[in-house]
């Protein structure tokens, strides 16, 4: 069976991406990160998702991106709340984590070399997203090129491919796709600033984009919110 490394945060996008890889008959090796994020509860969601969907293996890499700071998710900076759709759609927000997807993909590439696997899946999206530069097609293409010139496997002829099945889908389309694949979205977590008991805040950019996606998909969001 062909193998794939799937980056899994426990959110809607990465969960749907894992389901797609499984539906395409890949033996999936899910990879998540405990990187010092304030919404660390997402690693619990990732465990639930990996188990529910039947990933062959699930690893959680522990790294500390708090040493760099520079983001509301890893530093002592307030998470923006109640921003308008126009505000969310313009500029790079303070929730951007410097070089995060570059770092995550590097870990995925290392695992892919060892398994071995030629395929890496990541749930980046260039439509309904918060302006992150490392979610764009040109970034993914650049990293794929790097993977094939900067690894032993690539130099010896194994061609790595970075799969981005959601990159041109809206959040509503992703939610519908998850439904088609039978994904239990109640297991997912999206909030950047959850309450101490794990409820989504309903006000951060990620919550607002999630809620917008469910409204447009005409599907009820199965998770609980502190307010919305």
Q: What keyword list fits this structure?
A:
228 residues, alpha/beta, Rossmann fold, five-stranded parallel sheet, 5 strands, 37% helix
Mean pLDDT: 93
User: What is the count of helical runs?
Assistant: 8
Count the beta strands: 5
Predict the CATH topology. Rossmann fold
Anisotropy-based shape: globular
Give the low-confidence spans.
Answer: none
The biggest beta sheet reads: 5 strands, parallel
CATH homologous superfamily caption? HUPs
- Strands of the biggest beta sheet: in what spatial order? 3-2-1-4-5
CATH architecture: 3-Layer(aba) Sandwich
| Order of secondary-structure elements | EHEHEHHEHHEHH
**SS-based class:** alpha/beta
Give the tally of structural domains.
Answer: 1
The N- and C-terminal alpha carbons lie at a distance of 44 Å
CATH class: Alpha Beta
Radius of gyration: 17 Å
Percent of residues in helices: 25-40%
Description:
The chain has about 230 residues and is α/β, with parallel strands linked by helices. It has one domain (about 5-215): Rossmann fold, CATH 3.40.50.620. It has helices at about 10-25, 40-55, 85-90, 100-115, 135-150, 150-155, 170-180, 205-215, and strands at about 5, 25-35, 55-60, 120, 160-165. Helix 1 (about 10-25) runs parallel beside helix 2 (about 40-55). The longest helix has 15 residues, at about 100-115. The protein starts with a strand and ends in an 11-residue tail after the last helix. The mean pLDDT is about 95.
């Amino acid at each position: 069976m062909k193998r794939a490394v799937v980056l899994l945060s426990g959110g809607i996008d990465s969960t749907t991406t894992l389901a797609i890889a499984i539906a395409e008959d890949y033996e999936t090796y899910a990879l998540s990160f405990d990187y010092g994020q304030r919404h660390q509860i997402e690693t619990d969601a990732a465990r639930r998702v990996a188990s529910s969907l039947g990933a062959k293996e699930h690893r959680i890499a522990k790294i500390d991106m708090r040493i760099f700071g520079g983001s509301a998710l890893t530093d002592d900076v307030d998470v923006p709340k109640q921003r308008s759709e126009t505000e969310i759609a313009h500029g790079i927000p303070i929730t951007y984590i410097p070089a995060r997807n570059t770092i995550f993909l590097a870990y995925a590439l290392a695992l892919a070399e060892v398994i071995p696997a030629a395929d890496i899946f990541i749930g980046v999206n260039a439509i309904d997203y918060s302006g992150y530069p490392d979610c764009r097609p040109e970034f993914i293409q650049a990293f794929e090129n790097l993977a094939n010139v900067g690894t032993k496997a690539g130099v010896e002829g194994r061609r790595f491919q970075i799969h981005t099945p959601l990159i041109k889908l809206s959040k509503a389309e992703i939610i519908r796709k998850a439904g088609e694949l039978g994904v239990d979205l109640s297991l997912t977590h999206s909030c950047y600033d959850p309450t101490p008991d794990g409820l989504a805040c309903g006000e951060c950019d990620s919550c607002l984009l999630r809620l917008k996606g469910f409204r447009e998909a005409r599907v009820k969001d199965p998770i609980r919110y502190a307010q919305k």
